Amino acid sequence: MRLFLTLFLTLFLFSCNEQENITEKAIRPIAWEKVSESNLQQLRTLSGIVAPVESTSLSFEVMGKIESVEVKLGDTVKKGQVLAQLNHRSLTLSVKSAKAQLDKANSDQVEAKNSFTRYSQLIKNGLVSQSGFDNAKANYESSESAVGVAQAQLDIAQKNLQDGTLRSPYNGIITKRLIEPSQQISSGQPAFEIEGKHGLEVHVMVPETLIKELQHNSMIPVRFPVLPQTKMLGRVTEIGTRAEAANAFPITVVLQDKNPSLRAGMTAEVDFTFEDKGSKYYQGVAISVPFSAIRAGLNQKSYVFIYNPNTQSVNSSEVTIENIRNNIAFISSGLKSGEIIAIAGVAFLRDGQKVTLLDNTTQRFN
Asked: How confident is the model at residue 233 (pLDDT cuts 50, 70, 90)?
């Protein structure tokens, strides 16, 4: 009998302890977040290409044979520095020929002027005919025109001689060299490409759905995949008015900082943030929560579980979701700033359930 009582008491105590353990295990720890108000914004990231603010293709304005090339690819040059020269022999001969023509025209003008002056005096005395006077006057006027033409030809020859030397239009870097010595080159044929040292810009194609949101001189963040630690601000300086490929509009964003590691041709990522509209054209303040905090209900209703610190329990609250971007839900009603909500495992929660809050400083692994 005593043995039976002892066994009974032992089983009773074990059962009580087990019930207490089950009760303790029923208090579920939850991942949580204190919500706050935020604007109903949309973030779109578009890729672009880094390009120099100032760049151009350089060429000779006259044809000829390359005499010398003074720079090579990657060289830094200054404004006015000689880059290449043509063989000047034919250009110099053209200048000499033009000077000879001008001298002859000046000599003919002097002779025509003297003849016109003499005829002007003789016609007053009736010693020459009117036709003779008219011919002398016409010859003099023609000689003046010939001098003007000869002077213009000399100016052109001298300009061609100057154009036989290609100079840098501004301080910059040679990014392409397309000529070699002894090469025959024609007028306008590209010889070099140069980039100025006035900073870099990003060329981006913006979809037609976003172009109306952009404004001139607005500042936007720019990132670079090859330089993950580099982030700059860019200023929108140009907005295209005509769509190009895939109904996208070209825009230009000038970087406001410099980084020696950046090069033209690199990829850039431009972040566009703008005010969005809700599902029913709602605009204004919203509360952003992780999408994992939303629990779907009947009739397409949505709920979140709000923690009550007084009762240490959670209760569901119906919310209105205006938009979802990047796994973030924007809620316009059903939540207040400062409230604590469960952000994980909401499918296993129920109204009035006792919970504890996980320590947010502890790293969790899903």
From this structure: very high
Total residue length of the chain: 366
The answer on 319 and 309 residing in a single domain is yes
Measured CA to CA, the distance from residue 33 to residue 307 in angstroms comes to 10
The helix, strand and coil proportions of the chain, stated in percent and rounded to the nearest 5, come to 30, 40, 30
Q: Looking at 275, 292, 315, which one is the last position of a domain?
A: 275
Name 330's bridge partners: 288, 323
pLDDT tens for each residue of 258-295: 888 888 889 999 988 766 655 555 666 788 899 899 99
The domain in which residue 235 lies consists of: 43-53+198-275
Q: Closest Cα to residue 200, out of 243, 165, 235?
A: 235
Domain harbouring 114, CATH code = 1.10.287.470
Residue 345: inside a domain, yes or no?
yes
Same domain, 350 and 285: yes
Does the residue 62 lie in any domain? yes
Whether residues 37 and 49 share a domain: the answer is no
Helix, coil or strand: residue 320: strand
Residue 33 counted as domain residue: yes
What DSSP element (H or E) covers 52? Answer: strand 41-52
Q: Indicate the residue type of 91.
A: L
Last residue of a domain, one of 275, 295, 313: 275
Quickly list H helices, 125-183.
130-163
Cross-sheet strand order for the sheet of 55-59: 55-59, 190-196, 172-177, 76-77
pLDDT digits (tens, 9 = 90+) for 156-191: 999 999 999 999 998 999 999 999 999 999 999 999
**CATH number where 257 lies:** 2.40.30.170
Say if 16 falls within a structural domain.
no
CA distances from 42 to 213, 228, 283, 285 (A): 11, 23, 12, 13
Q: Burial, 196: exposed, middle or buried (Cβ in 10 Å; 0-12, 13-18, 19+)?
A: middle
Tell the residue number behind the tokens 């008015």, with chain if given: 241
Same domain as 221, residue 124:
no
As a whole number of angstroms, the distance between CA 342 and CA 43 comes to 25
- pTM of the complete model: 0.55
Handedness of CA 63, 69, 74, 77 (dihedral sign): negative
**Nearest to residue 61, comparing CAs of 205, 148, 208, 163?**
163
